[in-house]
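Hi U.,

Before I forget, here's the chain from the pilot set. I'm dumping it here mostly so it's searchable later in email.
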Amino acid sequence: MRRLKSIDFFKKLPSELTEATLTGAWISVAATIVMTVLMFMELWAFASPSSSASLVVDRSSPNELLKVNFNISFPALSCEFAALDVSDTLGTRRLNLTKTVHKTPIDSELLFLGPTVQDVKRRAHNYDEEGRFDGWPDVDVSQPINHFNFEQTLERYPIVVVNFFAPWCHWCQRLEPTWDAATSAVHDKYPESDGRVRLAKVDCVAEAALCQEHFIQAFPSIRVFRHGHDEVNFHNRKVHEAYDGDRTYESLTLFADQLALSAGMPHLRHQDLVHAPFAGGCNMHGFVMAKKVPGTLHFTARSESHTFQHAWTNTSHVIHTFYFGSRPSWHKLALLRRLHPAGLQAGWADKLVGHTSISETTQTSHEHYLQVVLTTVKGLGGGASEEYDAYEYTAHSHSFESDDIPATQFSYDLAPLQILVQETRRPLYHLLTTTSAIVGGVFTVAGILDAMLYQGAQLLRRQRLGQRG
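Structure:
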């Protein structure tokens, strides 16, 4: 037992050999307060999770797709021809996306003029073989009408089918002999004494103002006028009646026969009639799923059977939303606010919200270049509910004149690195280690301070006694 006692680290002195001092008491009280405060702070730090941010190579799976969300208003681009194309650097090109794109007609003030409809692909039209009507004689009835006799023609006939064309348009050139032949045949079958239906055409190069007045944006556009106007009420909104059938002699004459039967009965509709938007603007909203490589969203006017006058195509627009990924729930938004390395700014995911691009001149295109960075935050739980991918981007916009048809495009480039923020909690042994360090450190420092003060006091006492002696 005596040998065992010899290795005791904590040897005690008899109480009669120790001395209590007032200075030591104050130091003990101060040391106790310091230890208590430090212990409380250490316990608080242990109970509160911490986060660590690191920059890593993008860990997305090879086949993962990126959701691109948009809501954009084009006040001068008709929903009849507004289209969205998507392309990327891998060579993928998808034209006129319709499955996840919705359109709503709007006016120049961006007010909705009708219900939202899902975009649909427009079918290609059949034409007569070229040269079929080369030997047919010209007839006066096929001559274009103009702004002088346009209203007079509409008032004279119950139904007038008008072909708005441009001489330089390829599709108009293919349609011209067929239209003239059909016009002559319809006039022979329904002469002036009958006058139930009339086919006519308008040269939009010579009558640009007249065509723009009727919201003509592509050629050829075939409109049906009943009793002086082509407006009908469809689901409480005004639309134009337009012909969308094949552009052959048989189809046009059959269509005229069907219209002649319905003269005076505007509620009857032919299967080849479609509703063209009454307004000149369109709101396009929806999303696309794109590969996580640099790509472009291309908004423009498109039709497989029409040609567009570039100078009349205006892609001025207002961006209501444009963001990547999905909107966070309130729980994930709180997680992101707590763990984001630099803190969230207003509009952190949608830097282009409210942005307006105006075409000051004709044939103006607009481009927005977006550099996208992925920040992944992971909470303590580690499950899907505690993880969120936040896509942020910087945007650079500019407008330029182009010889091509005006368009608005969003080009995006994803950074190859991602910011990974993980929330962690300190292990228990850290708490035990720091607690021991606090107690031992404060006790040791307090002991050293007490010894210094005590020895200093003793030295002063000896000096005073020596001076008296």
